[in-house]
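Section 3.1: Structural characterization of target chains.
Under the original work plan, the team committed to producing a structural model for every single-chain target entering the pipeline before any wet-lab resources were allocated. The record below documents one such target. The sequence was received from the expression subgroup and is listed exactly as submitted; it comprises 340 residues.
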Amino acid sequence: MDIFINGTDCISPLHSYYDLENQISLDDKSILYAMEPDYKKVISPGLLRRMSKVMKMGVTTGLNSLSDAKIEKPQAIICGTGLGCLQDTSKFLTNLCTNNEEQLNPTPFIQSTHNTIAGTLANLTNCYGYNITYSHRSLSFETALLDAMMLFNEESIDNILVGGFDEINSDYITILKRLGFLRNTNTQKNKFGEGSAFFLLSNNRNEKSYAVIKKVSQKHYPKYSDEILNWISDNLSDSKLKLDDIDLVMFGRNIRTDDLCDIQLINDYFKNKELIFFKNYCGEFFTAAGFGLYISANILREQKLPKIFSEFKSKTSIVKNILIYNHNLYNHSLIVLSKC
């Protein structure tokens, strides 16, 4: 089923899509922190005082997506997150240990749950419809998209607010170092990041529609063989497209940059395709596919690629179809996106 993007917003290690011409190089950074806007333009100071970083990012991008689509109240809210409100979780557990489980502040506990942002958005917009948050590791955002597509098929609703968000903090960085994912060397290639991306989706095209999601699919533990190649081809066929119809591949490489599956896909299956490695700009996090979808939707909307995507050498003046291919550890996903 085709679903249309009528509004979107993103907070990431880059500025907004429209400021990308002036970005600095991110090549020398292994931790890519989000560049946060002035939240007071969107959220009242009273609410901001009690919000963690990821709550501010999620609520701001959610409300801005509604504003972009000229919608005040969504009919449903679906979110995806790998780690949820990590800062509040760390704060609560630290207080639990240091205070011997006594005199604990309830706020970090209340706001540490994964569905806090979806609930807050519902309260701020008076949305009493379907509201759910998925936490399926690196497929959290894609699962939220799939649920939205099924909900459009099952219910008589016109729009759904869908988003993905994750944050990184000092405790998480410590864990990454202990696991060996972060190394203090000049050859460090693994970049970790954070961010939030939201989309106002509709099952009907209108004057605000600028991109259409034609297919969302997931696959676990595939190896580079006929299995994964047939999976990609079948999903393109379901979208009434062939690989030749894809103008741009947004490739989210696995954190292990020497992963054989990624290398073979890039050098073989996608060898004649234009590729942008979007995790070079947002870092690796569980809902990074949301950043890839945000950038792709705006490329289709504006028909312009910012200079920061220096590795992309366009062979076509018009971008009509984009394939977003994301790989994180053992999870693979793809999103087929077309211009309206």
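DSSP finds eleven helices and twelve strands in the chain.
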